[in-house]
Amino acid sequence: MTLAEILAALFPGGHDVRVADGLVTGRAPFGGTEATVIGIDGDTPLGIEGALTLSRSVLDAVRAGTKGPILVLVDSDSQRMSRRDELLGLNECLAHLAKALLLADRSGHPTVGLLYGHSAAGAFIATALATRVLAALPGANPSVMDLPSVARVTKLPLETLQEMAKSTPVFAPGLDNMVATGAVHAVLDPARPLDGQIRDLIADLTTEDVRDRLGAARGGRPVAQAVAAQVAAEARRG
Amino acid sequence: MAAQMAASTDPQALSWYEATARQRVVALADPGTFTEFLPPTERRMSPHLPLFDLPRAFDDGIVVGRARLDGRPVLVAAQEGRFMGGAFGEVHGAKLIGLLRAALDVRPAAVLILFDTGGVRLQEANAGETAIAEAMRAIAEVRSAGVPVIGLIGGRAGCYGGGGLIAGTCSRLAVSEGGRISVSGPEVIETNRGAEEFDSRDRALVWRTMGGKHRRLIGGADAFAADTVAAFRAAALDLIGRAPAFDLATLEAEQARLEARIARFGDCRDATEIWARLGVNDPDAVPAMTTAAFDETVARVEEAHHDAR
Amino acid sequence: MESLTFRHTTAKPLAGTVPSTITGVVASGNLEVLLERVLPPDTCEVAIETPIAGYGPVWEAVVADFVARAQPGGIRISINDGGARPDTVSLRLLQGARLMEA
């Protein structure tokens, strides 16, 4: 689905969402309230200006106090890789965007990510992965690094990695693996109305971070939940 | 466990950069107060590295536990930059997250994160990436509960990739000359954009662009520490006492601070141009400045002092 | 990865009461050595995981030399090797034994 199709499906009553330089911002009536929409379209890398444009929209919504949902639509590249971005503090800008989403969540705004294309690395962490619940459309292809690059770094043959990827979701790119890891909560059905599916996700929101539990149940992160629980138990034993 | 090893090492003399994660933690804490959770004897190693025929570490490259700092209880995590570049794997990340989650109940005086990381461990990339997102959420919750989360950065692996994003989520950061904070590393930028964009072999350029002094001058870090455990301890104690709240006012202030930075320095090609505009008299002298001289310089730079993080 | 295990009988137990310690880091040319006081006082076991195969006889000699010098009775030693040279291995083993004697 294209961004235009997704917006039309999410907001049958119309919307005021614009795309400029690959950055998505706007508002739309949604389920009796007003949703704030931010996002990245067209495989665009996320740099310092883009991160601050999106965080500004999120903070505006928090200040307005409507408690309406914040939808984060993502088809991005990784973070913008440049000397200038790092010189000016890309880590602060990306973390700021993530913090804005985390604050919105804490302030009563349901934050929902929808991954409909690519995303990777810092851009993925600052946007989709900073939402309370992350959904994806079939065909989305998140990755940390593509397999040819993994082959270069690990010095393993590509064919070997491709074979390993079939049985080991923990390192291989792709939506199925991110679902197995628990990072992506649900894959939506594009044949059914998207707005209802998003409303269902919002209705089922949990307060705690369930991603490691999902990763254990789905087999993509076999030990993370148990390790975190054991450390926490030892710490609480005080 | 292992406390004996570093107990004899003088924190005044022990180099943060050269020390192991375990040595840093033991020497940072009040003597004899560090207790490790899930210690090496538990052997909670990576289930994934054997698939890649790679050696494992008994602690998966991160030491977590409780200690006292000037008598006050703290929770501590320290990454070992020499094992797999300190990168986040499944177990490594989960240990940090378990510690942060416990902080909500334990309510320590602070959580200290001793960063030393290249980012996500490629062999466990999806688990590492997800763990970074979980850590950032957990930090937001811990800070909201009024517990400061302090990052200490001065290890040989620096603080790169997702580590840089976690650092940006902390209440306060202390950094040394050798500490580097960045998302894309020099090699990654060069590989993707060419040596004209970033020559990763130009170490002076790396330090000017990502190093501790630059981060401190532009307000990307809140304290500059000499490369000793004692200096980092003093910085941590100071920062715990003045951690900003995690609320709308703080983030609005950070938004304004970062927007102002881009407006003011967005056309600068090199850090020395930024330092000149910040009012540093002799920007070219900054890299060679002693800690004392640098502290004096920082004291006069308005942008370096803020509660907007 | 290659796994090696060597068992030795010692003339005496290792001095001291430290229950466990770890020294070294798994990195290129380095190794970590975990020592635990969990075996009968006349027994020492050394278990090694190394990514560099085919050096069994060298490990056997280094471990035998260490056991003869340190008499580490009662100690189980577990090594994660990052490709350390024999002299580094010896150094770490002796360092570990000293920490246990403290």
UniProtKB/TrEMBL annotation, chain A:
GO terms for biological process: carbohydrate metabolic process. Pfam families: MdcE. InterPro entries: ClpP/crotonase-like_dom_sf, Malonate_gamma. This is Malonyl-S-ACP:biotin-protein carboxyltransferase MADD. It comes from Methylobacterium gregans.
TrEMBL record, chain B:
NCBIfam families: malonate_beta (TIGR03133), PRK07189.1 (NF005530). GO terms for molecular function: acetyl-CoA carboxylase activity; carboxy-lyase activity; transferase activity. One of its GO terms (biological process) is malonyl-CoA biosynthetic process. Keywords: Transferase. Pfam families: Carboxyl_trans. It comes from Methylobacterium gregans. This is Malonyl-S-ACP:biotin-protein carboxyltransferase MADC. The keyword Transferase applies. The keyword Transferase applies. Residues 1-248 form the CoA carboxyltransferase N-terminal domain. InterPro entries: AcCoA_carboxyl_beta (IPR034733), ClpP/crotonase-like_dom_sf (IPR029045), COA_CT_N (IPR011762), Malonate_beta (IPR017556). It comes from the Bacteria.
From TrEMBL, chain C:
It is found in: Cytoplasm. It comes from the Bacteria. Its main location: cytoplasm. Covalently binds the prosthetic group of malonate decarboxylase. GO terms for cellular component: cytoplasm. The modification O-(phosphoribosyl dephospho-coenzyme A)serine is found at residue 28. Keywords: Cytoplasm, Phosphoprotein. InterPro entries: Mal_deCO2ase/Cit_lyase_ACP, Malonate_deCO2ase_dsu. It holds the Pfam family ACP. HAMAP family: Malonate_deCO2ase_dsu (MF_00710). NCBIfam families: malonate_delta. This is Malonate decarboxylase acyl carrier protein.
